[in-house]
Known about the structure:
alpha+beta; four-stranded mixed β-sheet; elongated; 2 domains; 24% strand; 8 helices; 37% helix; Trna Endonuclease, Chain: A, domain 1
Amino acid sequence: MEFARGIRRFEEQPITVEYLLGVRKRIYTPDFSAEWGDGRRWFLEIKPSEKLVEPFNAEKFDTLTQWFASRGERFVVLTEQQIRRPVRLRQICDLLRERVTKSSKEAGSFLPCVGTGVSIAEMRAASVDEKLIRQLLADRSLVCDLDSVIDDRTIVLPYEEADDVALFI
């Protein structure tokens, strides 16, 4: 969530809700909430993937998805399959360490037009410093496929809101 540019804040165990599962009243506390810059709010549950195939949990999470949707919010269940992608996780951690305190967005105005995508090698050939490229990736002014190792062949694109959603889903 720290890496998603569009998330303004997040909170652990933000609320406890009551819902009906069958005829029985239950209570539930999501693991996290994420508030997006445009006001959307997502509630997130983190579970091992093997728990999702259990019939009770499948029914519970389907019911909670509908409960949150009826209130205009989104419920998302994440597993280790989304969170612990080895290459992605390592790269996000590395890029988070490279974030600068002053905005590197200003520096981004000097970049060549990346349009539908250019490689890091092409940007370097256009005299864009590699450190600046990584800072622009770190603050999400530019994005790339995080499931592949970032190198000269990596294609970078301008940030779009859907790039943050893709971090989770």
